[in-house]
Structures are given as structure tokens and as C-alpha cells.
Amino acid sequence: YCLLRNKNLGAMSSPAISQEQIIQQFMRMRSDVNQLAEKINQLELELREHTLVVDTIEPLDPSRRCYRMIGDVLVERTVGETIPAVKSNRDGIAQLIKNLNEQLAQRQRIMNEFQTKYKIRISNQSDRAAPAQAQKSTGVLA
User: Fold this and answer.
1) Are 69 and 56 in contact (CB under 8 A)?
2) pTM above 0.70, yes or no
3) Are 24 and 140 contacting, i.e. CB atoms less than 8 angstroms apart?
4) Tens of pLDDT along 55-67?
5) What is the pLDDT of residues 119-142, one digit of tens each?
6) Which ranges constitute the DSSP H helices of the chain?
7) Buried b (16+ CB within 10 A) or exposed e, 68-105
């Protein structure tokens, strides 16, 4: 991470923050955003699984036996009893994903504002590789 000095940093009304603290806070923000995105991906997989289950068992006879995993216990139920529970779980997961996506957008916006405020630049691997390649090519043709 590169941090450009802000000339007005000392004139701000908030207490002075060291560059290390700014970078650490930015890294924490970035980590939180990444963790939230991973959680959303996990929930989207669960949502797909629930949808697949509903699509598979809905055409079946409601009195047919089926087995459902609740926690670590396999429970015998009928299709008619299972479909509403799975649909309810699916809808709850969909709502949770919607809420987490809103939180993710808000945290990304806050992180971007923080990055802009303190002029934080993220140096990528490609930024480091470009100067190295420029040094390798000396202009000699073989």
C-alpha cells in the first residue's frame, strides 16, 4: 500500500492518525469486505441447493416419504411436510443475501471514501512487474 501525504492532515479537527494506523484500518476494512463477500457466496450456494431440492421434490406425491437433514440428524418426513419448510428456509436465505448485499455495498462505499480521503493507492503485482520488464528489455535485437 502506498500512502500519499495529505498536507491538510494536521489541520483536520480529528486527532492525528499515523500512516501505519491508517493502513491497518484500511486493511481491516478490506478484510471485512472480503469476508462479507465470501459469506454471500456461501449463502448463494445454499440458496441454489434449496432451490434444487424444491424443484426436485415438488412434482412428487405429497404423501411420499423423504428424508431431511436437520442439523446432524436425518429426519423422516413426507414430501408435503418438507416442501413448506424448505421453501421457508430458501426465502429466509434469499432475504439474508439481499441484506448482506446492501451491507457489502455500504462497506465498499465507506472503504472507497476512506481510501480517497487518505489517498491510499493499492499497488498490484502488475505495477511491480511492468518496471522489471522495462529494465529487462535493453533495446538490443537478437
Assistant:
1) no
2) yes
3) no
4) 999 999 999 999 9
5) 989 887 455 555 555 555 554 554
6) 19-57, 79-117, 125-136
7) eeeeeeeeeeebeebbeebeeebeebeeebeebeeebe
